Amino acid sequence: MPIDRCVCRQIPFEELRDIAAEESLGFEALLDTTGCGSSCGLCVPYIQAMLATGRTTFPVMSPRELERMCKSPQAAEVKPDANSPSAPKPA
Ligand code: FES
């Protein structure tokens, strides 16, 4: 199941990206404005990755993978960690 929204606020990342662009909001201001990240917080690293890359859909990724994606947003593919839920399983 792809990650494409703040589940607690039911706001898709696509809408968050548009709000950030239209209102020139950075990460903290976007969270303050929308309330995203203020409940369970699981969407927070994905929102950071969304702002860094422009992507609005992600596989389930580890915090380390998301951090790596934020540091190299130009990378088309981020190799998953071996223990990540998104890592390919050996045959
Ligand atoms: S998914 Fe965004 S605060 Fe829970």
Task: Characterise this structure.
The structure is a single chain. The chain is mostly helical and 91 residues long. It is built from 4 helices and 2 strands; from the N terminus they run ββαααα. It has helices at residues 13-22, 27-34, 44-53, 63-71; strands spanning 5-6, 11-12. Strands 1-2 form a two-stranded antiparallel ribbon. The chain is globular and about 40 Å long. Bound molecules: FE2/S2 (inorganic) cluster (FES).
Task: Pick out its properties.
4% strand, binds FE2/S2 (inorganic) cluster, two-stranded antiparallel sheet, 91 residues, mainly alpha
Could you state the order of secondary-structure elements as H and E?
EEHHHH
Rg from C-alpha positions?
13 Å
**Helix share bin:** 40-55%
Task: Give the overall shape.
Answer: globular
Percent of sequence in beta strands = under 5%
Number of strands: 2
The tally of helices reads 4
Low-confidence stretches: none
Rounded average pLDDT: 87
Which ligands, by name, code or SMILES, are bound? FE2/S2 (inorganic) cluster
Q: For the terminal residues, how far apart are their CA atoms?
A: 21 Å
Record the strand order, biggest sheet: 1-2
Structural class by SSE content:
mainly alpha
Largest sheet: 2 strands, antiparallel
How many domains? The number is: 1
